[in-house]
Amino acid sequence: MIKTVCSKGKLVAKTGNEVMAEAMRQIEPDVVAAYPITPATEIVQIFSQFVADGVVKSEYVAVESEHSAMSATIAASAAGARAMTGTSSQGLCLMWEMLYIASGLRLPIVMAEVNRAISAPINIHGDHSDTMGARDAGWIQIYSENSQEAYDNMIQAVKIAEKAKLPTLVTTDGFIISHCMEVVETYPDADVKAFIGKYEPERYLLDVKKPYTLGSIDLQDYYFEHRYQLAQAVRDAKDIVLDVSEDFKKTFGRKYDLCEKYMLDDAEIAVVVIGSTAGTVKAVVKELRERGIKAGFLKIRVYRPFPAEQIAKDLEHVKAVAVMDRADSCSGAFAPVYSDVVASLYAAGVTKPKVVNYVCGLGGREINTGHIAVVYETLGKIASGIEKPSNKVEYINVRIR
Amino acid sequence: MLAKMIEVRWHGRGGQGAKTAALLFAEAVLATGKYIQAFPEYGPERMGAPVQSFNRVSEDPITIHSGITNPNYVVILDPSLMESVSVTEGVGQNGKVIVNTSFSASEIAQKLGIDAGQVYVVNASQIAVETMGKDIPNTPMLGALVKVIGSLDIDSVLEDTKIKLTAKFRHKPEVIEGNLASIKRAFDEVKN
């Protein structure tokens, strides 16, 4: 029998998109500006229905493109409003220049982002190419393994963004989570509203008593300092994420961290992933443990800021690690999560683990327990010295040659 | 992999409600206190094209987020799909196939080339026409699936479906009654 974690929680069957919209209803931002795109459409569609039905007092701005969606959200946030939006894939691409402006202006916008492949060829299914491409945009990026996390992350994101003065995006994997109905525990409206609190910006453009300039020209004299401050704000956001997680646990009972360790403390072999594949990996680890194999797993929940120190500490004792990227950055070298993990280990002086890189699941390609079991099998051989670790990206479930 | 987990694959045609059936089934099973997943296969979304949707049911939290390739139960909403889609793929020797048809289980078993003990039949289209006035076989098939699985409580399923339909069709009580009657009848009439 399922039980709730929070005494006032309610169990509902909802898809990832439905719970993200539900979180937005409870957050009830002042302004939402959005343009629909598969597979994120439902989020803003459901929310616009809340607005039309008078369920929320939010202002909904229907715009003509995602570039305008982000522009209107930026304007609303700069004016002093709590502002949100939602998008996916090509929509995020069209927002590109505005993403950097949102972070550069230090606006605490929250975005529901459904991970989807990028064209060409055209594909509507889940992979991380869209948000991985935006990893340098100065946004906090929080990835959700399932619908429960998507809901919880959305609520936390509001507080994180406003404390860090940084835009924050929360993702789900397209279709795999966005369109999968699961059991989600939701919390009472009043508790969510109390948790996020009232938005009281320090400065905003419509505050006529304290006028200030936003987005002015900034050449050789100050640009560098401002960009340094942005980079430093992203670094400092790790503690903010952890503080908000702590509050969240106290209020609603669920514990979140920058990363999630699963049977990792005594593991000899481990996989690192982001997103919905995490749950499938857990099922494999459970089975391997039953067979006496010391397998473990690390899920990165917060990818920006990147939890470098924590990852180095969590993986230092592991003999062989596989980083499974759901995006291929076409760098000619390695995929993004692998590059970040390896840099983190090296910088911390952790040289024991042999670390290999896999790219998987592009365009929604199946990644099941069988594929993951093969990765662990290879890691076992690397750990025992039977096999040499590959020094290039390996691919899972793709037809090559 | 997880012995207690039940996996279901629904076969229908675009517009027949295979996706809705999986969602309704999941919500109803949650009402019985179990963990659930429901997800459709997204391909070409054309009326009449073969479509699939899926369910997982478990006593324990479901963490797997991959496709279902070896279902314990296959539900076929449109019997003509048996001609064009490999509906028994991955079913194995213990899997069960539930078909909306007027033919007998042994006739269907012969057609599918599987053991007659694996096949269950119910004339869901006829039940749908008689209870709801329309050939929408997805709700009656839900009742048939609950019966064949055996471990689910039909009363909780009916109760939850009633709540869901009441919220959706407040002004059309006949729709609610018809749907519930179709589930109950298919539950009673599905046979091996």
Description:
The complex is a heterodimer of chains A (401) and B (192). Chain A has 401 residues and is α/β, with parallel strands linked by helices. Chain A folds into 2 domains: 10-252, Rossmann fold, CATH 3.40.50.970; 259-395, Rossmann fold (3-Layer(aba) Sandwich), CATH 3.40.50. Helix content of chain A is 41%, strand content 18%. In chain A, the strands form 3 sheets. A 7-stranded mixed β-sheet of chain A has the order 3-2-4-5-7-6-12, with helices on both faces. A 6-stranded mixed β-sheet of chain A has the order 9-11-10-13-14-15, sandwiched between helices. Chain A has a two-stranded antiparallel sheet with strand order 1-8. The longest helix of chain A is centred in the middle third of the chain and has 30 residues, at 223-252. Chain A is globular, with a radius of gyration of 21 Å. Chain B has 192 residues and is an alpha/beta fold. Helices cover 41% and strands 19% of the residues of chain B. Chain B has 7 helices and 6 strands, in the order βαβββαβαβαααα. The radius of gyration of chain B is 15 Å and the shape is globular. The model of chain B has no long low-confidence stretch (mean pLDDT 92). The chains are: A alpha/beta (401), B alpha/beta (192). The A-B interface holds A 1-2, 11, 13, 124-125, 146, 173, 175-177, 179-183, 276-280, 282-283, 287, 366-369 and B 1-2, 22-23, 26-27, 30, 33-40, 42, 62-67, 69.
